[in-house]
Amino acid sequence: MVEPKSIVKTVFFALVLDLLAFTIPLPLFPRLTAWYLTLDSSPNSLLSNLLYISRKWRSTLLSLSSTTGYVTDGDDQGKKEWDVVLLGGAMGSLFSLCQCIISPYLGRLSDKYGRKKVLLATMIGNLLSAIIWIQSTSFASFLLSRLVGGLSEGNVQLSTAIISDVTTSSTRSKSLALVGIAFSICFTLGPSLGAYFASRPIPLTTSTSKDKLNIYALPATISLVLLLVETIFLAVKLPETKGWKKDDTSIEEKKADGQKGLSVEEKLNKLKIVGRLHGLFLLFFSGAEFTLTFLTYDLFSATNAQNGRLLSYIGILSAILQARHVRPSLTRLGEIRLASYGILSCIIALSLLSILPFSSILSNPSMSTLVLYGSATCLAYTSATVVTGLTSSAASLVDESHPLLQRGRALGGFRSRGQLGRAVGPLLASSIYWIKGPSIAYIGLASCLSIVWFITNKHVEKRKKIE
User: Fold this and answer.
1) Is the pLDDT confidence value at 30 over 90?
2) Interior CA angle at 50 toward 45 and 53, to 5°?
3) Which residues span the membrane (predicted)?
4) Higher confidence at residue 334 or residue 30?
5) Does pLDDT of 464 surpass 90?
6) Is the pLDDT confidence value at 254 over 50?
7) From its phi and psi, is residue 16 left (phi > 0), alpha (psi between -120 and 50) or beta?
8) H helices of 301-334, where?
9) Residue 277 near residue 455, CB atoms below 8 Å
10) Residue 324: exposed, middle, or buried by beta-carbon count in 10 A (0-12, 13-18, 19+)?
11) How far apart are CA 358 and CA 299, in angstroms?
12) Residue 461 and residue 336: Cα distance in Å, rounded?
């Protein structure tokens, strides 16, 4: 019989391959959109219509703005490329929206047919998405690639279910932290790989064949190869874990699992609460993530390289925190309590960003750098703790004896709420950003997260009383 540790390592390696393939195209969206415009600048094309909608939306936001001296129509003339960037962000929101729709169904299918079968089926969709991207010479076909990818991506959700299947209550949280580590590693390396290979053609191609390929066919091919290796690796190495038998009956294990004494109704209620917290947190956090590079561009005219260093700092620090702090702390402190610390850290980060545009700080390069990277440090802690903590808490509420609490269904619904937050958050945050300016936008996000923190902390205090 395969050891649980071996399965967890298999899932982690496959997840790294999957997330690298997912993150490689992220920095290419604006350039891809600009390339499609050179191929088809017709005012009736799909891309032209979408950019027109983006311009109208932005103009409407600017006309509603009561902020003076920060963003004006005149200032915005030099930022027409923002329409392209916004459209790239909208494609990211579309992907998250697809995940919101499909996640519950993937969870239920994995409960019925098994994790491995459903995971391999989703991998076929991912491979198809990459193949479409390689040959995409129109914006419509690239959009189809994103739709197929969004409706097929199930690796993160099913990896969480598989790890939960094979680990005990005392090792579950520590093992699930590996999912967060994989995210931190890949969101640091993936975009850099995408940017590096973006300017390089596919070897052994002729001028005729190049006309039939996407301008970024090489990054797309690398994504395809990563997904293909992942699919073969999973098919060979991963056993079926649905119904996995594990020894979880010792006194120590029972003590480690704080959910053992809860009734089915209490578990269902708590799962709903944790799911809502997950969705609300990502609603505001993803908005802050999306607007961060706009802020640095506005205030410092930051280049892509400078923004890359900032995001790499957040990603690397988050990975270190996941490995050295989060994994040992999840069991000791409790999942929800650790998540509450991360939400509080995000409130501090957004408060720092809100004062960054002040002239007294902006005029002092050392002070502005200190405030910016202080905020980035807090965001790294947030990235390392909140989603991992809430996911571990949701996984602990699974009860295979009840149809509504079966692992696939429970975790699928949980992920769906989070992805809905990720889909709406960037649109909400950028709207407030352009209407009221960055200071009010970040104070508003911090205020909303303060409510989320209060609810989370109240849940922690309630658990203290029970214990």
Assistant:
1) no
2) 130
3) 7-29, 84-106, 118-136, 175-196, 216-236, 277-297, 309-326, 338-358, 370-398, 441-460
4) 334
5) no
6) no
7) alpha
8) 304-321, 327-333
9) yes
10) exposed
11) 10
12) 10
